[in-house]
Structure formats: C-alpha cells, structure tokens
Amino acid sequence: MKILKKNEITSFKRSVDAGTEEQRAAVKEIIADVKERGDEALRSFTEKFDGVTLDNSKVGKAEIEQAYKQMDGELVEVLKEAAANIRSFHAKQKSTSWFDTQEDGTILGQKITPIDAVGVYVPGGTAAYPSSVFMNVIPAQVAGVERTAMTTPPGPEGTLPPGVLVAADILGVDEIYKVGGAQAVAALAYGTDTIAPVDKIVGPGNVFVALAKREVFGDVAIDMIAGPSEIAILADDTARPEEVAADLLSQAEHDARSSSVLVTISEFLASAVQAEVDRQLQTLPREEIARKSVEDYGAIILCESMEEAEDTINEIAPEHLEVVTSAPFEQLAKIKHAGAIFLGRYSSEPIGDYFAGPNHVLPTNGTARFSSPLNVDDFIKKSSIISYSEQAWRENHEKIARFARLEGLEAHARAVESRKETKDE
Amino acid sequence: MKILKKNEITSFKRSVDAGTEEQRAAVKEIIADVKERGDEALRSFTEKFDGVTLDNSKVGKAEIEQAYKQMDGELVEVLKEAAANIRSFHAKQKSTSWFDTQEDGTILGQKITPIDAVGVYVPGGTAAYPSSVFMNVIPAQVAGVERTAMTTPPGPEGTLPPGVLVAADILGVDEIYKVGGAQAVAALAYGTDTIAPVDKIVGPGNVFVALAKREVFGDVAIDMIAGPSEIAILADDTARPEEVAADLLSQAEHDARSSSVLVTISEFLASAVQAEVDRQLQTLPREEIARKSVEDYGAIILCESMEEAEDTINEIAPEHLEVVTSAPFEQLAKIKHAGAIFLGRYSSEPIGDYFAGPNHVLPTNGTARFSSPLNVDDFIKKSSIISYSEQAWRENHEKIARFARLEGLEAHARAVESRKETKDE
C-alpha cells in the first residue's frame, strides 16, 4: 500500500463500468424478449446463462424447510437478531403525513403512501448474501410496501443458497423466483404470467443487471447503481495499526476494484499500517483479490493537519468512513460526504454490514456527495395536498391569474377565475 | 372529448419520448465536446442552436436591473408573495439529523447534510417560466444548498425573459448562465472555466436536455425526467361543469401531448363537461394545442360507483388530481397515487402551479406510483452514524464474525475480531 501526500493525488474517482456496446445491446434484446415471450423467455435465458432447466421458477415451502435443515440453528438466531436490529433502526426513519391549516381556511400538506410492490434482486454465486436480503427488503417492509418479490439466479443444480432462503423466510418474503440477470429485471419491470410487475427494483447485481436497471428506469423506479465497495479511515495516533489494517482489508477482499484508503496525520501510523496490511494479507483466503485491490486502489494519505485530512475525506466522499481518533464526534461535525460513518475504535466496519441496524446499501464512487444509504423514504412517495377555501380563493385568485398570464397561459388564468361567475349563486 | 366506460380503457400510459438514435448520438457528441473544449464548445453550440454569439455567458447586474424595469411593479409583488408561500411550505418539510442511544453505549443515527451545489435548468422560448425558477431553486435553498447555478438558453437577441431574471433575483440566485440544451447540462455536470461543476441537476427541458440528463446521471444526480402535463378530476354531481371544463383545459393548453381526464359517476356532469370543453376551447389563445391534447389524450370516464372511480384514479396515478365531490377529504383516504391532490371546488389546479406553496414539479405518466413532487429531501443526503461502545462490541462481535463467515468474507470476520487482541492491554 503506497503512502502519498495529499497533493500527489489528482482524483479519487474510479471509472464506472458502463458496459460495452455489445453488453448494452444484449440487455436490450433480453428485455424485449421477456416483454414478448414472458415466462418462456425466462426459461430459455435461465437455461442459457445458469445452465439449468426449471419447470417452475417459484420457490416452494419444501425448499425453505430444506434450507433451514442445512443451517446451523445458532446462526439462524444470529440472522434473526440482525434482522430485528435492522428493522428497529429503519422504523425510526419512518415519516408521517402532515398538514398545516391557515386562518383563511387553506389546508396544505404532504400525504405519505408506500409504494405498492417492490422487486428485490439478490445476486447469485459467491455474492449471494443473506445480509443483502435483509438490507433491501426490511426498509420496504417498514415503509409499508404490501408486496415484495425477490429474484435470484439458481445455481447449476437449480437450487439457492440456504442462507438466502432462510433470510427471506425470516422476513416473511413468500415470493422468491429463481431467475437472474437482465431477464429478472425485465420480468420485475414488465411482468410475466408467473411474476407480477413491480413499481421499484432494488438490489445489487453484475453489469448486466446494472444495465437492465438503467434500461427500465422511468417505467419503474430503481435504486442507485452500486460500484465496488470502498472504505476510508480517518485516524490519528490513538488508532491501533493492526485494527486499522484489518478494517481496510475487510473492504479490499470484496473485489479487485474495491478501494481502501487510510487518511492520517500520523507518520508512525502510516508506516505501521503499511506493514500490517502486508502481514495480514498473507493469511487471507481471498488474498489475491485483496492484494490487487490494495495495490490498484488502496492508499495511505499523509496529511499535514486534521483539517486537511477532513477535507480529503470530503473530497473522497467514501461509501464507508471510519473515524478512529481521540475524539471522533469532533470530526463528525466536519464530515459532509460519506455513506456511513463509523465512530471510534470499536465501530469496525463489518458491524454495519451485518448487524448494527443501519443499511449497508450505500452510495459509492463519490456519489455520497448527493446520495443516501438505502432507507425507508426510498419506498414511500409523497403527494402534495392543497385545499383552498372560498376565502383563500377570493383573496388570491386575481394574483394567480396575473402570474399565469405573465407566463402566457391564458387557460390557467381562466380556470382559476372560473369560480367567479358562480360564486354568488 | 370522448365519454368512455371504465372497461373501454386498456391503458393510461402514454409512450415516453426517449429520443431517436440520432438525437442520442448528437447529445453524446455535445457532452464529449463540452468536456474537452469547455467554454469554447459552449460558445459554438450557442451560436449553432440559439443563433447568437456571446462573449460572456454570465448574466450581469445591469441585465437584472433592466429586467425589473420591463416588469410591472405589482406583478413583481405577486412573484414575491408566491416565492414566500413556496418557501414557507418547503420549510415545513425540513428534516433534521437524529440519533438514538442504547444502554450498552451504542449510538446510531442519521446525519443530514445539504448537497453542496445544484444546477437548475430553465427552458427557453415560450416555456421560460418564472414559476419554474421558484419551484426548482427554493427547495434547494431551504435544504441549505450553498451554491445554485442556473442555465437557460438566450433568445435570438442574446437576452433572457425579464420574468425569469426577476424570479432568480428575488431568490438571490447570482449565477445565471445563458446556455441551453445538452451543452448546458454537460457544463453543469463536468464544469468549464466559467461554470463550476454541480452535484445535482434539476429542471425541465426539451428532449435534448432530457437525454443529456439521462447521460450524465451517475456522475451527478438528476431529478425525474418529466413528461407532458396531466390532470385528472374526480367529480360528482356537486361539481360545476364550467369550472371542471376550465380546469381540464388549463392542462390541455400546455402541450398537444398533455392529458386531461374527468372521472365521474354523474352522467349529467359527463355530458355537461363535454359540451363546456367544446364551448371554452373556441376562445382559447392556445386553442389548437389544447384541442389536439383533448382529442388525443383527453377522456371523460363514466364509472358505476365512487369506488370504481377511486380505483380508476389510482390506476392513472395522475400528476395533478382534483377532487370535486361533496366531501373531498373522504376520497383523500382512498387515493394512493397522485403527484398533487387539489381538494374541493376552490382548489383550481393553477393555484398549485404558481402560488399556494407546494411544488409544481410533479411525477408524470403514472410515475406517481413511485415518485414524489420535488421537495427539500431531494437536496439533502443522509449519512448513517454507527458508534459501538466496547461493551456493545464485546457482546456482539462473535455473532458478527459468524455472519461474515457465512457469507465467505473472512477478512470481515477478522476485522471485527481484531479488537480482541488488544482489548486487555
């Protein structure tokens, strides 16, 4: 892991995998085919991409029961506790409809309504994470979404990982379909005989899933398109090198394109963490991925002051930020852009991935400048409420008509004036 | 305007103008050119598309003063009152950072931070609306956004409409650039020497603007991509046909692709509104546009019960909904999907376009199923806060490590365990 000065860095942005022209074209074709042939198209794409022929893509009760048998009972309890923590944190985010009355009889407000139906994409293979089920489904349930449909690609035997099935069952998700890729996104967006269409699609996926979400965006809502995982750690002399190194590597093991950055004012910590990363890398099962990530996208940035260090963090706008300093809440006030902020020595990043309660679906690649973690508000929508009384209308309609005429919209002016003719009847 | 039964309608969805392949290619080229040549590219596109050569695209003080001179003083007061109403409504939406402490010392919460810089696109020509300036800028200002940059295409004389300049000045927007189209979106997204880049771009525009926003989406945030305006009116016998017709036409005059729909259980009202629309159309300055809109996308839907009528509204998920019934608040509970809901006889839709306070940037074409009016939350982002105490870590780290190992992420498990080694030092 290289040690750099702040001014040696030109940009923290990584290139986004926008897919090749061929991939884009393939995704468009898949979507068109699913729109046209529905379940038949799903069946043939599952054969082609997942290597398995499925008569019925919907997961049944027997498969869920089987999944529980394959899981350690204590681990199931851990999953349940994690789900409860996540539910509890998200419940605190819930906003309510409100209104405001004025003396002239005007009532204005916002009505909150949950989205009717949400589709959750859960990736397959080694990236099939029960935690991903929790983090995407629970905020929707807390928001009051009535229907949640989950899709995930089947393994070569036509089965799904037990952890994913148990996680879904813990939440009471009873619509699980074995279908992945762009075809799953198309089915969720436009519906087939088996899968009713949804209003919003969330959840991570490979480049085909990302491209498909981009393609259906507008017809349905989508969540953000996530990039490789990131961590930045802001640390001073009080941080322990072996802990900092371990936390950096926890993100590096995700993906060779993941990014792990230490920002510090301590020369001692910089060298010590550098050595620790090397040492710890050697015994990691995913050493190869983590090493490449650290070499290509990792850095230790040595700053001249805590202010410069805080500015550096805001420039990075990291997905995950750990603040391991003598008084981390002092830094909190200075941090403007970060997806999740972990404060203090004991707040190791994986605590947030699995257990603490806040969402692990977070803005990546600097998008924390303008995006938030997945949250309950992502699954509701607001309607404005406007109720004008006769008095309010009488006192304001002429002004409104003038404003409309300034914009050249005569029918607008006449509409608001139209009450006049009958007001004395 | 045709009268239809509910079952005679198959879909309320209109095709979205996704642009032609040529338009998409042109937009990509424009964006690439602005990225490369910056202000020089802006100058040449302004020459090409707006027919005017500008040495300096930034609006100066003298132009603002000139704009005030061209405006009626009373009208300026109306604009100020409207701005104050809009600000007051949006101020009520402001959410605050929060946190929650647990007995084991855990602190969890969400930190709210405004987006740093926002770009507002204001369309040119006949669609240059001061109200659009208010509705896009005020929520950003209320959210606490520090920098708002406005772009709008210059007219053939190189000038801007006085109403737009005065509206911007009322709000204290001092960065106004005379540049429009895809080139303006590119400049806001990536910056030039004159225009510093922003984090989010909002505001309506033509197909080139919409395509450019779609293209830069991800590098910056964008608002929704708006379609033609819509109104649905849910009315019973108590509604006055001339008022309902006038309100339907207020949306029809926007665009030949606008949609105006009356949903009613009253046969009398259906025929009377049909006749009134015909009568009122004849004297409208924008008769041609409104007539085409009413013929192509207008309808009177005659329902058999109020329940069927309410369901119909939810299927349409209209941008604007008026409820003109004997007890409109009773219907409010049944409405799930609508951008803005106008309750009662005196709540004519243009009141919301200009004056009442709620935003007029609303989800169109059924997207009210999953989208909200533009609001203060669109200009903030949240950061999760996680602070675990030593006790919380001690009690939970083994569970978290187990969960991580279930997902095959050993470095995650080791990170959360790494505190162990030093905990007794």
Give the proportion of residues in helices of chain A: 40-55%
Which stretches of chain A are low in confidence, meaning pLDDT under 50 for 5 or more residues running? none
CATH architecture assignment name of the largest domain in chain A:
3-Layer(aba) Sandwich
N/C terminus separation of chain A: 82 Å
| Widest sheet, order of strands of chain A | 1-11-10-9-12-13
Characterize the biggest β-sheet of chain A: 6 strands, parallel
CATH C-level name of the largest domain in chain A: Alpha Beta
The CATH superfamily title of the largest domain in chain A: Nitrogenase molybdenum iron protein domain
Task: Describe it.
The structure is a homodimer of 425-residue chains. Chain A is an alpha/beta fold. Chain A has 3 domains: 3-14 and 227-356, Nitrogenase molybdenum iron protein domain (Rossmann fold, 3-Layer(aba) Sandwich), CATH 3.40.50.1980; 21-222, 3-Layer(aba) Sandwich (Rossmann fold), CATH 3.40.50.1980; 388-422, no CATH class. Helix content of chain A is 44%, strand content 16%. Chain A has 16 helices and 14 strands. Chain A has a 6-stranded parallel beta sheet, with helices on both faces. A 5-stranded parallel beta sheet of chain A has the order 6-5-4-7-8, sandwiched between helices. In chain A, helix 7 packs parallel to helix 8 (207-216) and helix 9 packs across helix 10 (267-281). The longest helix of chain A is centred in the first third of the chain and has 19 residues, at 73-91. The radius of gyration of chain A is 26 Å and the shape is globular. Chain A starts with a strand and ends in an 8-residue tail after the last helix. At the A-B interface, helix 4, strand 3, helix 9, helix 13 and strand 13 of A face helix 4, strand 3, helix 9, helix 13 and strand 13 of B. Chains A, B: Catalyzes the sequential NAD-dependent oxidations of L-histidinol to L-histidinaldehyde and then to L-histidine. Chains A, B: InterPro entries: Ald_DH/histidinol_DH (IPR016161), Histidinol_DH_CS (IPR001692), Histidinol_DH_monofunct (IPR022695), Hstdl_DH (IPR012131). Chains A, B: Belongs to the histidinol dehydrogenase family. Chains A, B: It is an enzyme of class 1 (oxidoreductase). Chains A, B: Pathway: Amino-acid biosynthesis; L-histidine biosynthesis; L-histidine from 5-phospho-alpha-D-ribose 1-diphosphate: step 9/9.
